[in-house]
Fold:
Amino acid sequence: MRNVLRCKTGVAFVIATLLLSACAAVPERFQLQGSPGPEQHVFPPPPDQPRYRYVGELTGEDNFTPADEPNAALQFGKKALKWLVGLASSKHQAVVLQRPQRGYVDASGRIFVTDVSRQAVYVFDVPAGRLHVWEMAGKNLRFSMPVGIAGGDNGELLVADAELGYVVRLNALGEPVGTIGQGKILRPTGLATDPQSGEIYVADGRAHDIKVFDRAGDLVRTLGRPGTEPGEFNAPTYLAFANGELYVTDTFNSRIQVLSPAGESRKVIGRRGLFIGDLPRPKGVAVDSNGLIYVVESFYDHLLVFNADGNLLMPIGGTGSGTGQFYLPAGVWTDTGRQVYVADMFNGRVVVFEYLGGA
Structure:
């Protein structure tokens, strides 16, 4: 019996290898899952003027399909491959998002998403039509709890790992090329960069402050301290940098703080409360090219939209797994166009909206 199992396993691997080679040669195209058909999902719903449109979701390998209609043999081969991989290894893990945290879109259109459950960075390579999973934070060292992510110099990617306690630098191929903040950060979570100065801002949730590093990775200053006054923090988490200002999710103070690069308090958005629009547990924060401010409110499972002055414009969401609903959402980010991405953590997906414009 043991020899029979070995034989089956060996055959499975041979066939799987052949099928993988065949499938790899087939060009693939990227598409969002759950894209709406004739029925449009817009927010707010009619009769109000819609401001946002649901355009789909990032879930994993299902976002990539053959560019041409596959023939029957290839369809059978892909189904057989999944069965054979399961036969050959009981530890096979589908390439899907599990607990997404934060993301970033680079100039080429690649979408990067950190996942704390998978302990990796997912790369939705839209131009190449491929999905990659980057697991390594160093030589013989895997990511442990990747949370924050941002673009660095020369096409590099910066990833804040809360458990490793520093920021990992990856090149464009996902290869670790260095670290930032080793021995100087207790628990890094949020990450943002100033495109002008190149300075790197890291939220240290355990030290209740923001560490600022220069391009070379040297610590140049620390912003804030524990407390509740403007410029003070209680477990800061996510960060965004836009229009020369730093946006800090001051989670346990139930607010978003807007600071100058030197740490001067410019504005406070939100408050503790029980109504939609309040921020009992804010998480992700982002600012789009129109100056609109997006805040993930994880307690009530909403994406809140504020204007540049910090006034609430509208909520999107509510608890659930349906279109426009979230379950413990985490990060939010935007691209250079009109797309808004929300890491819907416990639904294992990234939900994508399009801003439709309007006053």
Notes: Residues 11-25 have pLDDT under 50 and may be disordered. DSSP finds two helices and 29 strands in the chain. Residues 42-60+99-355 form a domain with the Neuraminidase fold (CATH 2.120.10.30).
